[in-house]
Amino acid sequence: MIAKLQDAIQSKETFCSELDPMKEEILIKLQQSWEEKLNQLQCEMFETLQKEVKKYEETQQKNLQESMSAKLKSSEASVVSTIDQKLRSHECNSIPRIEDLEDHVQSFQIVASRHREELNKLDEMLESLEQAMEVADQKLRDRNLCFVGLTEEQDENIEGRIVQMSKFQLGIDDIHASDIENVYRIGRKGNDQGTRARNLIVRFTSKKMRDRVYQHRKRLPMGPDTTTNIYINDDLTPFRSKLFYDARRLAKAKKIHSTWSQYGNIMVKRTEDDQPTAVYNHEQLAEKWKESTRNEANDNNYSDEN
């Protein structure tokens, strides 16, 4: 009887030990499922925000234009009516007083000045909304990378090629196809075989894996002996892409020391010893160039004096 009881206890312990790994596996799958749902919900929230901001912008612009148009028509009609009444109140051979006409013109100028102020406020509001939309757009790309120079193949398995490149060229051994959420090429596909490969956008399931690939990008082989140079860049918005392009032109012309993109921001160094700073618009970029020019002129003056 005791032997049977011991066997039963041992069987229970064996069953519990086999059940623990199953619990861990179920918990891991539940966690992954919730992370995917949270990521999807985040993207949907940003897209909804972008649509609502655009809708609000269009509504405000339309309402303000209608309001200003109505006010201008009303003011114009009022001025014309007043002038007409003044003219009719005089005899046919009388001349209206210049002072009255000047008063009405001044009144009209005041109304027009108010409308200009409202237009300026609208421009500031639109600029602020555009900046908010641009920031939200870049936020949606924070798990993306842009691969430049990756050749196109017929019926290509892009996910597999990215995984193989990351493992054998970047040294990231624990990357898998499940770490890639989506891949697609941008631009129009060329018909000629010699056409340059279109850029490839890769969206990872986590920002952590995206950042690891980006940090290891310099391990890719470069140089004249390489058949095709492949570059891994940030996926920038059209506005930041243009800003980065202009910054690279300044660096190439030696107007600034250097520039690069870092996690969606455009970084600039005025001089070799300067601390890198982020620029968010062309006005800030132009100011960096002016500061660099002023410093160069001061250095030249100092050299001449000595």
Give me the side-by-side strand order of the main sheet.
2-3-1-4
- Major β-sheet profile: 4 strands, antiparallel
Approximate strand percentage: 5-15%
The count of DSSP E runs of length 2 or more, i.e. the number of strands, is 7
Which class do the helix and strand fractions yield?
alpha+beta
The number of distinct structural domains comes to: 3
Which regions contain 5 or more consecutive residues with pLDDT less than 50? 302-306
Return Rg in Å: 33 Å
N-to-C series of helices and strands? HHEHEEHEHEEEH
- How much helicity do the residues have? 55-70%
Categorize the overall geometry: elongated
Summary, kept brief:
The chain is an alpha+beta fold and 306 residues long.
